[in-house]
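re: ur question from earlier - yeah i can do the single chain one, its not a big deal. heres the input i used so u can compare w yours
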Amino acid sequence: MRKLLFLFMLICTMQLHGQTVREWMGLPPVPVEFPAFGDMKNVENKTFSQADLLTLSTFNIENLTPAVGEQELQYHSLTWETATVNDNIVISQNKSTVPAIGLYAVYAENTQWMSGKLQFSFYGNAEVYVDGVKKITYTSHKGTEAVNQECALQWVPGKHSIIVKSLQTQESDKLFSAQFIADPNFKDAPVDFTLSPKRGKNILDVLNGPRIGGIQVSPSGKYLIMAEGEIIKGKSSSMTNVYRIADKEIVYTFYGNNVSNLTWIPGEDKLSYLIKEGTGNSLYTYDIEQQKLERLFRDDQTISSFSWSPDRSYLIYYKNENYTPKEWELRKLDGIEDRQAYYRNRYFLCKYDLATGIHTRLTWGNQTTSIMDISHDGNQILISTGRPDYNEYPYRKQSVYLLNARTNQLDTLWKDRLVDIQCVFSPDDSKLLIAGAADAFGQIGVKIAKGQIVNGYDTQLYIYDLNSKEVTPITKDFNPAVSNYIWHTDGNIYIVAGDTDYVYLFRYGKDGKITRIECPGDLVQKISLAQNGNTGIYTASDESYPTRVYTLDLATLNAQEWADPQGEQYKNIEFG
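and the output i got, formated as tokens:
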């Protein structure tokens, strides 16, 4: 008698710690039918049972986002509704004479780590999923009396989904009831049950979800190449879509990594890309307007990546030569850097003539040659070389040249520079836009106090006149640090620059003034401008929101949101 009394008191104490779930939402029941040959025994000598209707009728529950009044994205004909609950028991709304599967959901929200258990009273067969993971499978119900089932839980702080998948028949309109019983150490920890999916941001929102890679606007500004990826449970997938910007329609898609060097042909709305064929690469072009596919060369053994000449007459590519002995026991080091495995790799420039199909070598020697830019008429190529020099800080010297693409004649612009620079041609090819440190040209770009040292990471911009050899610093009085720049055919230079904790978009106008473009985004990431139009596309994130894609009208400087890849993922997130 004392044992029974103690057991009764223990149960009552547990019930005091329990929280009954008093409201649920549900999707309209979906009728399910017995399969053909269901009365035939399978290889395990079993016939198809009513319980099999529950377990073999599946939903992608992990990806459901229940919200009253919202259509479930995976099942557009089904809308979440407030469920009928009498005496804390969910009541079936199945009006059909055939069995049906119903989904019912509620959210639990806790502010601290806790453990406990969910206890259900089932009036029929059911499955329970917590945060998309199946916790209970109950398929042995008989009669009309309730049967208790429970599952242990350990909850990190946040909001957790509880979804019950119930088999509804005509035997009873009662489905289930539920309560949460916290472990004794957490009996005072608050847990709220709600139908609202609104929640805070968690680490999975950071690790998973869609991603935006590279963007390229077509020369006319009508189309956009956008590399897109998605991470689901740490596994990534990728594709590259070609969009019509006006209506966001996908006009071409490349899945995975089956193509490389995908880019627009200069001056034309045509795609070009390499595909591995045979033992080499083949170059294809695709005309979007004409829907015409063409192969320019097949199974080439040398070209693995390339740059188009603006006049579309040739391709520039690198040839790698490795001078490291394959087998050696002792060798003489050619300087300190020769201890590195990559040091004896050299890269040289080659040209492929599209008219004749001939490959020619453009550069030679003992120093790697790098391409910076090609003039708009295709006649001149900006190239550079670099070599270590341990006698003078910063222990490396750079030389910059103009290489005639027709005759291979070389014109030296700078020899043995101590500060590296990057150069691109102006739209009329008469000037160069140069990026480098404030001391890239002596003291002409320096604006610091006496005794201070130039910050080599604070990139500045200069304009160099190829005829007069005059250098003009254009960002000397501009505090933000330049990270990207485009000299557009409209005559303006568009600049992406870091300003304290933000990255903004600026414009250097024909009047010589730099002004910030007031456009959405706290951190501008990538930008692409149409070669022959006023259309620009850029990506930017905000302080607490992931990357979005925006259009930018270069004539009016009006920006509009074009795509929000993670909008669905973030629609229920509330920030503090």
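The mean pLDDT is 92. not sure if urs matches, ping me
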